[in-house]
Structures are given as C-alpha cells and as structure tokens.
Amino acid sequence: MSGQTEGPGRLRVIVADDQAAVREPLAAVLGLAEDIDVVAAAADGGEVLAAVAAGPVDVVLMDLRMPVMDGIETTRRLSEEHPEVAVVVLTTFADDESILGALGAGARGYLTKNAGRQDITRAIRAAGAGQSVLDREVQDRLLATARAKASPTPDGPAPQPLPADLTPREREVLTLIGQGLSNRGIAEKLFISEATVKTHINNLFAKTHIRDRADAVRRAIGAGLA
Questions:
Q1: Using one digit for the tens of pLDDT, what is the confidence trace for 98-133?
Q2: What whole-number distance in Å separates Cα of residue 100 and Cα of residue 111?
Q3: Residues 6+ apart with CB under 8 A from 218
Q4: What region, left, alpha or beta, does residue 59 occupy, with left being phi > 0 and alpha being psi -120 to 50 degrees?
Q5: Distance CA 213, CA 57 (A)
Q6: What radius of gyration, in Å, describes the C-alpha atoms of the chain?
Q7: Which residues form the Response regulatory domain (predicted)?
Q8: What is the mean pLDDT of residues 143-155?
C-alpha cells in the first residue's frame, strides 16, 4: 500500500482502524517513512488476523474500538498465534481498563491519538526492535494505578525484594523507569547513551524476569523505588 518497494530492514506494518477517515490518511503518512511499508489497512480485528496470516507482518498499529473483533481481543489472538508480530495501540481511550487490557493482552506500545507522526513512527520502530513505548499520559495513568495498588497499609504488602545481583546502575535504571522516564530521558538523566541504557534494561529484565516496561513500572513500585 505504501507504493514503495519492500526491502531488507524495512518494517511491514498494518494500520487497523474502523474509520476510513483515520485509517487511510494514517496509512498514507506512515508509508512516506523510508523504513516503513504499510502492507495492509484493516477495518476490524478479523481483517487484521487475515492480513497477518497472509503476512509477513512486523507491527500492527491497532485501534481498540472496532467492530467484529475489538483491538484487545485481536491483540490477544496475535500474541497467542503470531507472537513475532508486535502491536502498538493507537486510540482515543486512556482509561485504566483500556490501558491494562491492551498491555495485558500483549501490546508492546500504547499511544493516544494526540500523538504526532514522529511519536507514532518512533513507537512502531521501537516495537519492531522489541522495545515498549508508552504515551506520557498512559505512563502517568499506569503509575498512578500501580502506586495505588502497591501503597503500603498496616496489613498491606511489604516491598518486594529485587535480585541481589542487580548492579547499582541497573537498580538506578529501574528506579527511573518507575518514575516514567523514557530511554532517552534515562540517558539524559544519567549522562549515558541510549544504547547503554538499552543494555542495562536488557540485563535488568533478564535478571528480574520482567516482561515489558509496564511490568518494570510495577516491579519498581513494588520494590519501593518509585
């Protein structure tokens, strides 16, 4: 659909939204990126699954409110049947139920429709590289929810200990993730490169068995770091 020739290193993307007035311009704009090929546009979850089955596909940019099969159920199906395909949610909804439902179903990124083109393309590239990107508004909601659940009470849970082999730098990175900072924000805060931040995050996730950035936020709060 992008009008460009697919090549190595290019991300094959499906744009899913039930509104043609949103779906078609978004597909056209993303298709202008030098490293993105929009291989299909879908109006519902059934069309997404059919397009992925016809593949290959790297990333699905997913609306949540769609007929036939909504974005959360479609994400869950993709996680089970096509785990190699990353999902980035793009929606007008930023309520707890939508955010936690999508991330719990396996979405790797979550943006609101206030996001600009650069934010969307950055999230698609991050998802294609196995990283998570959350809109700032989404991060704030997630942090507030996690803090509310983890707030200590006289009978509440004690802080959850972290593995003893975490380095001071890895613990520092986890603290900053818990505060809602992006990789770039962490790099600026610690005066290191984003590549170094990614290395610390990979090591941190491996040692703690953290699944994704949302899980890292929960672990940081549970450990009393955020």
A1: 888 888 888 888 888 888 888 899 889 988 888 878
A2: 13
A3: 146, 150
A4: beta
A5: 23
A6: 18
A7: 12-128
A8: 58
Helix 96-105, helix 136-150: angle, nearest 10: 90
Contact by Cβ (8 Å): 91, 121: no
Average pLDDT, the chain: 83
Q: For residue 163, what is the DSSP state?
A: P
Q: Which amino acid is at 213?
A: R
More confident residue, 224 or 188: 188
Alpha helix ranges (H) inside the chain:
20-30, 45-54, 71-81, 96-105, 117-128, 136-150, 168-178, 183-190, 194-208, 213-222
Instruction: Report yes or no on whether pTM surpasses 0.70.
Output: no
DSSP letter string, 101-113: HHHHHT-SEEEET
CA distances from 148 to 25, 121, 156, 176, 178 (A): 39, 32, 12, 18, 14
DSSP state letter for 174: H
Q: Where do we find the tokens 């991300």? A: 11
**Kind of pairing, strands 109-112 and 86-91?**
parallel
Q: Helix H segments across 62-159?
A: 71-81, 96-105, 117-128, 136-150
pLDDT of residue 3: 41
Q: Give the tokens for residue 67.
A: 């007929």
DSSP annotation of 2:
-
